[in-house]
Design brief:
It comes from marine sediment metagenome. The chain has 181 residues and is α/β, with parallel strands linked by helices. It has helices at residues 52-60, 70-76, 96-109, 135-138, and strands at 26-30, 44-48, 64-66, 84-88, 113-119, 155-160, 170-176. It has a seven-stranded mixed β-sheet with strand order 3-2-1-4-5-7-6, with helices on both faces.
């Protein structure tokens, strides 16, 4: 008989896995919120989340959680080994300059890969869609386009078109350290 799954309050991440994701042992999931990534199960999944109610749900689901912003995590945390840094639905919640700093810090920390997902261009959002009071954390402050993630800087991009939508709704940007000089 199957054991029923324990209710955690977390939601399943619905983003499809982009092409080129390398399965890594140690992943830093920045801005995990209540939907940590689930494309595969790393040996060590570290969640970075600034909002306490989201942290509590992640901790209840047995994730290793650090309550801090992306800037704090990537500037202050000195992990011995982080293979991949995932920023899924994160950088649009930051002003452009701090987000660019976070991207550079993620590239410096990740031994293998940095994986980003963000809406295509600026998409207005000011509410916490999960009903947990995190409105200020859910506000969109910047918009991003593929040309901001250049091949010269080591990025590859993929558009995301859900349900055969004619226009891209989002984009993935992947920086792969295994292909850098």
């Amino acid at each position: 008989m199957k054991k029923p799954k324990k209710k955690t309050g977390l939601l399943r991440h619905t983003l499809p896995r982009p092409k080129g994701v390398i399965e890594c042992d140690v992943v830093m999931d920045v801005g995990a919120g209540i939907r940590p990534f689930n494309w595969y199960k790393p040996k060590h999944h570290v969640c970075i989340e600034p909002y306490e109610p989201y942290c509590e749900l992640l901790e209840a689901a047995q994730f290793e959680v650090y309550q801090m912003t992306a800037v704090e995590a990537l500037d202050l945390l000195m992990f011995d080994r982080i293979d991949a840094v995932y920023l899924l639905d994160v950088i649009e919640h930051m002003e452009k300059e701090p987000a660019l700093h976070v991207l550079e810090q993620a590239k410096a920390m990740a031994r293998v890969q940095v994986v980003i997902y963000t809406p295509w261009g600026f998409m207005e959002q000011t509410k916490d869609g999960w009903g947990l009071g995190g409105h200020s954390w859910q506000t969109h402050r910047s918009g991003w386009l593929p040309e901001e993630f250049t091949a010269a800087d080591g990025w590859t991009t993929q558009s995301f078109r859900p349900d055969r939508h004619p226009h891209p709704q989002g984009l993935y940007a992947i920086w792969d350290n295994t292909t850098q000089n």
